[in-house]
Design the sequence.
């Protein structure tokens, strides 16, 4: 909550010194995966949230935001489908440049806070969902966002971005505590988030 309060203070500070401020609600589609997940493929999900575009010059802006993002991965084998559903509250702070009319490029860091973690498996019409592995994944994630977008003159916008995970999502101590005879030093694997996002929004 302290980080969210700081973000709101930054909104106010930037708005006070900026030429323009725009409020941008967004919704979009995620295609998420995690590195070093054998046999895994991208899992579809949603992201929804709001950003504030602070115009520092006519062509340069800072865009902080806050989004609920459905991430994880999917594994399908021999008629059985299993999905890891890790949902995050993501707070990106993007540097955004308008390169030609409404076309823009953006990049910046993103803080992620895990809000839920479940594994859902289905086979022959029967499905089971559990959060028993929730503690295997860390509550904090840090990533880099890069992307491009187009802003129409009427307010409608489109964007395509990729979130590159920079931190290991696995909590080795918690994993080891659930496996008899295994210590955290025995677990060598690392796994990072990767999320391709297609978004639409409206710039007020």
Sequence:
């Amino acid at each position: 909550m302290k980080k969210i309060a700081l973000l709101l203070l930054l909104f106010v500070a930037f708005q006070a010194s900026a030429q323009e401020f725009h409020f941008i609600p967004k919704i979009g589609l995620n295609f998420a995966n995690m590195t070093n997940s054998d046999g895994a493929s991208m899992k579809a999900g949603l992201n929804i949230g709001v950003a504030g575009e602070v115009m520092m010059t006519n062509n340069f802006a800072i865009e902080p935001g806050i989004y609920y993002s459905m991430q994880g991965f999917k594994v399908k084998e021999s008629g059985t489908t299993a999905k890891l559903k890790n949902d995050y509250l993501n707070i990106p702070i993007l540097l955004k440049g308008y390169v030609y009319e409404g076309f823009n490029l953006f990049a910046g860091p993103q803080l992620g806070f895990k809000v839920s973690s479940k594994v859902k498996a289905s086979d022959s019409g029967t499905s089971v969902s559990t959060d028993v592995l929730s503690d295997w994944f860390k509550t904090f994630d840090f990533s880099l966002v890069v992307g491009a977008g187009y802003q129409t003159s009427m307010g409608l916008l489109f964007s395509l971005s990729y979130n590159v995970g920079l931190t290991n999502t696995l909590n080795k101590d918690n994993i080891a505590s659930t496996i008899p005879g295994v210590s955290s030093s025995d677990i060598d694997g690392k796994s990072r988030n990767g999320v391709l996002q297609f978004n639409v929004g409206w710039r007020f």
